[in-house]
Amino acid sequence: MVIAIIGILIALLLPAVQAAREAARRMQCSNNLKQIGLALHNYHDTFRKFPIGSRSGSFASYNTTGTNWRSGLLPFLEQKALFDQLNFETGSFSGWNSQPFSGGNEVLEGLLVPVYKCPSSTIDPFINSPTSINDHGGMMHDYVGIAGAYPDPGGRGSSACRQSMRGYVCNTGLLAPHECKAIRDATDGTSNTIIVSEQSGLVDKTPIRSNYAGGWAGARDHAQGYDLNPRKANEISDDGASNYYHCGLTVVRWAINSQTTVVNSSSTTYETNTILNSFHPGIIQVLLADGSVRGLSEMIEMETLRRLAAADDGVPVGEF
Q1: How far apart are CA 225 and CA 232, in angstroms?
Q2: Cα–Cα distance between 310 and 174 in angstroms, integer?
Q3: How confident is the model over 98-107, as a mean pLDDT?
């Protein structure tokens, strides 16, 4: 009888313990985003702009020397010593499969930067998207930059978004490919614009995140006029190249925590339009451009989500 009672008590207490642990993990995830937000603002105070969202390097395709905003923020995340070791001129930032780190960037192999890892995620941080283990130990990040939304809520057509075989590429967010944006570009208001979001969950039991060439890599296709300095802008958006990826970024196109392709469509829920998702039940956490962190329900209306992803569509969001 006593054993049975103890068993019942444990069964009753276990959900509460699990909920408490998840609450603590969610709080740590929120703190990660707040640190990222503070780093972005300190970067902006220093350079009068946010870091380039994702850039090409010195090779025309499958390039490895490009990088994304995550490396540019390192000095502002108490990682200046790491940043100073990196080779932004000729070093490889890929660190995956047939493209190992090189040129001094071997320091990134097997390196976990805790602020870029959601504690609720059960995904191995060195599992590559979508299915393979990363042979060279490049970290797969759990937070993604927002490059905009498709369809563009401002109705601007190809001036805002372009289509390739890899989905839609937009430059209406505050972390855009081949371009540096600033607070002044958030004309809808910084409290109405998502700049970074969680992307730490699974899609159909698979880790599909915006880390196709590794979490530190940049754009995987060539942009004429690229600048090797990660703190300068190319002021060039995607040219519609057929094999274009921009690692570290996503264009919001699908509902939060979506699990499948859309009905009657050949489009997929990944590539340049990777899903915003998490292991937090029913929500994801996002960083707004004003530095605040919000939890968004997976039931949020898509039009509202797209408006939050576009910084300058002219349709600010009210309550959400």
Answers
A1: 12
A2: 8
A3: 87
Q: Which of 74, 66, 72 minimizes the C-alpha distance to 91? A: 66
Largest CA distance in the chain: 77
Residue 281 is encoded by which pair of tokens? 């039940």
**Range of the structural domain that residue 12 is part of:** 2-309
Instruction: Count up the domains in the chain and report the number.
Output: 1
Residue 200 pLDDT > 80, yes or no?
yes
- What is the C-alpha to C-alpha distance for residues 263 and 296, in angstroms, rounded to an integer? 24
168's tokens? 């839609």
Q: What angle do CA 260, 262, 264 make, to 5 degrees?
A: 130
319 in any annotated domain: no
**Is 63 within the bounds of a domain?**
yes
Omega within 30 of 0 (cis) for the link into 151: yes
Token pair listed for 294: 């919000």
- pLDDT level of residue 60 (50, 70, 90 thresholds): very low
List phi, psi (to 5°) of 49: -170, 165
Cβ distance 284 to 275 under 8 Å?
Answer: no
